[in-house]
TrEMBL record:
The lineage of its organism: Eukaryota, Metazoa, Ecdysozoa, Arthropoda, Hexapoda. One of its GO terms (cellular component) is cytosol. Keywords: ATP-binding, Nucleotide-binding. InterPro entries: ATPase_NBD, Hsp_70_fam. It comes from Menopon gallinae (poultry shaft louse). This is Uncharacterized protein. The keyword Cytoplasm does not apply. It comes from the Eukaryota. Pfam families: HSP70 (PF00012). Belongs to the heat shock protein 70 family.
Length: 668
């Protein structure tokens, strides 16, 4: 399954190219917007989004430690002939949904995809809440990618040497209109080469021919073929007793028949496209094979990325409405006939541009009838029309092809004069379209199958995460214990032995088994755990003593309101919250900071001193205020006494002057 998710503006559709490919590993470099990092033992990988989106990593990443853990997830579903193929396709779409958060998608599909294949693809995507914007033929999408690069000839041919097929697309480009003229393909590709190689190695190494060994060998094929491109022979060790060895001469004999079929096909397509003068562009992973290069003309172009051009072109389909280029894909051949009729089906569409205009078909019927729909002479469904009339009445059905390349049928009512009124509900007929796709029961079965695997997959992911986390913890445990100075000296050898044994320990099959292993290795570190527990108790004792001192101060100054006291109460609250989550053991030591307790002590001690100082200052201020108040009262008392004395003196003076006035009157 070849995939590229194009980088588009927010809200636009992603592009997914659905083509048969196989498993492998890909390392994306930083300039490709992603890297894959591997640990020194090459047992686990930290993958970025770009790497996760590589379909060659879809599955369980076949490794020595997990080859037999759960059934391998399939990456290939070449012809979609069986229910299992569709289940695997649904798995892959679900994988993309989780990894890339797909919402709106344009699909590029092989030329042989029928209307039924497309409908089933839409059903699977809908079940995953993926909106299918469009479905375009893969080689047609590649042509759009080529046009966007500029300098395109008026007529050109694209040869796509894929994994399960070889495709030739003939195109024209005039007045900024890109049109698909015709497409041809044969079911021969890199898969046929690889299957012969794998069978050869299984026979030579006397291996059991099963899925397990085919998956193991498949992961080495790409590297092996790359070496064969430049050397006469290759020798590659897979396991202790398995060696992949082959010469270029043996490989040439092995693929000679398939290569001859590809050569005949290519020659026919180039001859019909204009011979030596035709402009040819080559894409597809199999085009990198030295044997395929040898059968190609010398003037072929290789300006496109062989693996990503299809999906990139597919992403441009969703933006084509805003582009100056007009793109026209073509449909298959559709024909119809009345069900039960012995006449030859009538042509409805023949290589029609997609999306197409409506084609109206009128029948005069007074009873229910059905129309059978054929694609390339294969029955793909039927349209049923209900009619209730005493006499034959005209019933018009409008057929069209939507942007997904799917045939649609709706009602087009005709009036009494026979003029079409357009697509709307008829007054005397009801239309139901029953095209071949999944039933509700089949969709439920596909979903249940995926859910069963997903449960296993989630458990496997949890097992890996738990093991990796514990390994990382042990590798850094000695360094973390140094936080406490000389208190944990002498445990380095115990930690190293435990870590080495865990790194070489078998992988677990269930989460409960992994938890048991986790507990077993923790028990080996019991001396460290006991010391940490004692240290935790001592730290808690110090914290309790600190809290008692702080609470005593807050109780003592319960009626006092100062900034320091407010901060002290807040600090007590923070200490209690920290204490609720505080736990000192092998697993939590990595996040423990010894300075936190000292920081609490310093802050609390500082706040206690500040509160005492603020209380003393408050007391001094109160004493000064009391003295000032007493002085003011004393001054008021003195002022009152002086006023009283003055009043008494005045009264005495008035009384002394009254007898003298009486004596003067008597003299008169």
């Amino acid at each position: 399954m070849r995939l590229c998710r194009a980088l588009l503006p927010a809200g636009r559709a992603a592009a997914v190219c659905l083509q048969s490919a196989r498993s492998g590993r890909h390392k994306a470099r930083s300039r490709e917007k992603g890297t894959m990092l591997e640990d020194e033992m090459n047992r686990r990988a930290i993958r970025t989004v770009v790497d996760l989106l590589s379909p060659r990593l879809f599955g369980n990443c076949i490794r020595v430690d997990n080859r037999r853990s759960i059934q391998a997830r399939q990456r290939k579903f070449p012809m979609l002939r069986t229910d299992e193929d569709y289940r695997h396709m649904f798995m892959f779409l679900g994988y993309l949904k989780r990894m890339a958060n797909l919402r709106h998608v344009s699909f590029a599909v092989p030329h042989w995809y029928t209307d039924t294949h497309r409908r089933k693809l839409v059903d699977l995507a809908t079940m995953l809440d993926i909106e299918v914007e469009s479905i375009v033929r893969d080689v047609a999408a590649t042509s759009l990618c080529l046009v966007k690069q500029g300098h395109v000839a008026p007529a050109f041919v694209i040869l796509d040497f894929g994994y399960s097929k070889t495709t030739a697309g003939h195109f024209s480009f005039k007045n900024n209109v890109l049109k698909v003229e015709r497409i041809a393909e044969i079911a021969v590709g890199a898969r046929d080469f690889d299957d012969k190689l794998i069978s050869h190695f299984i026979q030579r190494n006397k291996l059991e021919d099963n899925t397990y060994w085919r998956e193991v060998l498949m992961s080495k094929i790409d590297y092996l073929k790359t070496i064969l491109n430049t050397t006469d022979s290759v020798r590659l060790h897979v396991d202790e007793d398995v060696v992949l060895e082959i010469s270029k001469e043996e490989y040439d004999r092995m693929i000679s028949e398939d290569l001859a079929r590809i050569k005949v096909f290519v020659d026919e397509q180039l001859c019909s496209g204009g011979g030596e003068k035709v402009v040819v562009e080559v894409v597809g992973g199999n085009s990198n094979n030295y044997a395929v290069k040898a059968i190609l003309p010398k003037n072929v172009g290789r300006s496109l990325n062989p693996s990503e051009s299809t999906a990139l072109g597919c992403s441009l389909v969703s933006l084509i409405k805003r582009s100056k280029v007009t793109f026209r894909d073509i449909s298959s051949t559709y024909s119809i006939k009345l069900k039960g009729s012995t006449v030859k089906p009538s042509m409805l569409f023949n290589a029609q541009e997609v999306p197409s205009d409506s084609v109206n078909v009128t029948y005069k019927k007074k009873e229910d009838f059905a129309i059978e729909v054929f694609e390339n002479e294969t029955l793909i469904g039927e349209v049923r029309i209900k009619v209730k009339a005493e006499e034959p009445v005209p019933v018009t059905i409008a057929f069209s092809i939507n942007r997904r390349g799917l045939l649609e049928a709706c009602s087009a009512h005709r009036d009494a004069d026979g003029g079409a009124e357009g697509a709307k509900a008829p007054s005397h007929g009801e239309i139901s379209v029953n095209m071949m796709s999944f039933s509700h029961e089949e969709l439920d079965a596909i979903k249940r199958y995926e859910d069963e695997f997903r449960v296993k997959e989630i458990e496997t992911e949890r097992i890996k995460a738990k093991r990796t986390e514990f390994e990382t913890l042990l590798m850094g445990l000695d360094q973390n214990l140094r936080k406490f100075g000389d208190e944990f000296v002498g445990y380095k050898d115990l930690i190293n032995v435990t870590a080495d044994e865990l790194l070489c320990y078998r992988s677990s099959k269930t989460l409960s088994e992994e938890e048991a292993i986790h507990t077993e290795f923790l028990d080996r570190l019991r001396p460290i755990t006991e010391r940490l527990s004692a240290l935790e108790a001592r730290i808690r004792s110090e914290i309790d003593e600190m809290k008692k001192r702080a609470r005593a101060v807050t109780t003592k100054y319960s009626k006092l309101y100062t900034p320091g006291l407010y901060q002290l109460r807040g600090e007590l609250f923070m200490i209690e919250k920290w204490e609720d989550t505080f736990q000192l053991n092998v697993e939590t030591i990595v996040s423990y900071d010894p300075e936190s307790v000292e920081t609490f002590k310093k802050r609390v001690s500082g706040l206690l001193e500040r509160v005492d100082a603020e209380a003393a200052e408050k007391q001094r201020e109160e004493e000064v205020a009391e003295r000032e108040k007493a002085a003011q009262a004393e001054r008021a008392r003195h002022a009152e006494q002086e006023a009283k004395c003055a009043a008494e003196s005045q009264e005495k003076g008035s009384a002394a002057s009254m007898p003298e006035a009486g004596a003067e009157q008597n003299v008169s």
